[in-house]
Amino acid sequence: MDPESVYKSVVEKDNKYVMPTYGRKPLLFTGGKDSTLIDVFGKEYIDCVAGIAVNATGYANQKLVSAIQEQAARLIHVSNYYYNIPQADLAEKLVNITGLSKVFFCNSGAEANDGAMKLAKLHTKKNSFISTNNAFHGRTIGSLGATANIKYRDPFVPLVKPATFVEYGNASAIEKAVEGDTAGVILEPIQGEGGVHVSNKEYLKEVREICDKKGLVLIFDEVQTGFGRTGKWFCKDHYGVSPDILTMAKGIGGGLPLGAFAARDGLSFEKGEHGTTFGGSPLVCAASLAVIETIEERQLLQNAEQMGRYFMEKLSKMKRDDVVNIRGMGLMIGIELNHECGYFMDAAAQQGVLLNVTAGNVIRLLPPLTIKKEEADRVVAVIESIQKN
Is-contact 364 196, C-beta < 8 A? Predict the structure, then answer.
């Protein structure tokens, strides 16, 4: 079939058989290399979405591809009733890079946050949580209770014990919200879906102190900020503040579905208290080990930090009068405009750049950690060229 026929066939099937939850863009991708995606017609796009912070090591990473192929030829799945080598190796690696004690494997960030809150409830024998305005922690019926956006929440109320929401960046607001049934606090060191709002060391340190004083479990949601996105393994590493539980997903699997949470010493599920069928399969754990090795061998933490600074410098010099703020850390960058800017996604795609818009008026850049200066230059030029709608 010619590309046009393939495209039409896929769109027809999708419209007929897939629940219409995503509002898809009229793009069909069939391949990619490093920071570039290629559509069915052969057009190339610099990707600043990366599967929403998932494809950290880029497309067609040979180490990742080989790890998946070799593990698939040996063993794809085995029940968690049994041991498996890649899971044990990955657990050791994650404990080392998080500085925490034990790991539970699941399949997504929402599941990781669900499990983290479940563990906090079990540990404290309490039921409620404090979250923050503009927070996003997932769409499962449990994690949705800690997600602030009414667009996601309202159709499903009443929720299972929804969180109390307070101002992000305001530690005293958290302390005032603590009640007798409060089990813990869950927050993102950088709010992604909420508009790329960056916390600071003082805030996280104060929240840590409040949780210690009140006997609360502190959960850092690093689903989007983990695995080099901010220039360090985890955003917490910039601040020197450690949570009781750290949740992770997205970049951990290089594109395969994998989530996890790590907890401090003395905080763990015991036999039968939690479980999953697919979490921590040999295939996804082998892929994750290859992702971590790639980040280490190609010095992608350093590249994320350096390219993040480069991006911010270039963006700050754009000739646009509608920019309110440019903020971020590493390769997690938000460009806040003084108007709604969803149209930027289509306009940029026409010029071969993939962007994401969140919170209505924030262009969010989440490119693979492999992105190069010449690609960043092109991205900035395209953003600068798009006229206010």
Answer: yes
